[in-house]
Structures are given as structure tokens and as C-alpha cells.
Phosphatase PAP2 family protein
Amino acid sequence: MAGLELDGSNPDVSLLYDINGLAKAAPTWFDRVMEFVGEYGIMFGLVLVGLWCWWSMRKRGTAEDSVTAAAAIVWAPLAAAIAILINIPIRGFVERPRPFNDHEGLEVLIHGKTDFSFVSDHSTLAMGIAVGIFVANRKFGFVAIGLALFAGFSRIYMGVHYPTDVIGGFALGTAVALLLAPLAMALLTPLMAAVARSPRVGWFVRSKSAAVAYADEHGEAMGIPEPRPGSGRGDPGEKDLAA
């Protein structure tokens, strides 16, 4: 692979210079913004999108949808973490140097990168989270995937990754998030259902207003025992929704 990187006709290298060339032409303040956004900002944005998705989904009136959505939201960071772990042996096996070690004239915005280049951890992490959010909700998922794509672009812009490093990261994050999703959902959904029934941590899955709305519609108390007839807490058969 190293031989291909040194070949000037390699489109991977050509695209690297084209995208990184934008950093040379941009003003210094813009490069500093891209440096922060590419290194930290996009990851923070993905966390916000995930939290927004979770906050929105927990307000749904359907208990089953809320439980499934909560399981998917929990799966998003787990998928990204698993993808990063899988990338550790991949990096050690490929041992691809960073592009600035083999190519001159690059505008490197982030210094001190001494590890290997393939696969991009940032791209893997970002796409793993984004696809996990997509499993929970398509609307929020598309926003997250857009942020993940920009994260990959920023790594090339900053001169710390080849385009194929980024593509490989996207593929790894997507594969883990999608291929392991059925197993993850099978394990996490019962767990989230148990959490939803808990009077202490049930808020993580469903908001209080959603729980009350669901109980009013279906005549059920969410995780609260029914009063016994003649207990003095209401008419026989009446469900107590007080928390």
C-alpha cells in the first residue's frame, strides 16, 4: 500500500492534495475553525443530535416505540466503541503512515499525530454513531450522517488522513452499526423495557407526560401497582396514575 501512496498518479493522493489545498488557500482563522470543528466540534454535534433524538423519541405515546428507540439510542455509542476496538488490529496490520510523512507540501493543521493512518478513528466513530442514530430515527439519522461525512472531509482537509482512510472508517462504522444491530436490539430492547417499568429510572425511556398519556389511552399504570378493591384508594378496577 505504501508504494501506491508514493505514486503521483494515485487518485487517493491527488484527491488528498486537492482537498488539503483548500486549507492553503483559506485564511488562517478559517483553518483554526476547521481544526477545532474537525477534531472536537463534530463529535460534540453528534452527541447533541443523539440527545435531541432521545429527548424527542421518549415523548412518544406508544410504549413499544419508545422502548425500541431507547434501545437504538443506547446502541449508537456502543456500535461506535466496538468499531473503534475493531480498528485497533486493522491499523496494526496495515501500518499505513500518515500522509504528511510520505508527501511534501501538505498543509497540516493538527500536529503530533504519530499513529497509523488507516482506518481513520474519527471517521469510524462519527459514522458508527450516525448510523446508530439512523437506526433509531431516520430524520435525526440523516442529520447525523451529514455531520459524519463532514467529519471525514475535515480529516482530509487538515492533512492527517488519506481519502481512503476516511472511506474505510465510514465503511467500518456503518458495517458494525448495521450488521450487529439485530443482535444488539434483541439484547437491549428487553433491558430498556425493564428500565421503562422502573419508577426511578423509567424517565430514561419515557417522559412522565408520555407515560400518563399512554395510561389514559390504554387504562394502564406504567409500572405502578393497581389498587385493590376496597382499599380506599378508589373505586374497584380504577387505575391509580399518581406517581
Summary: The chain is about 70% helix and 0% strand.
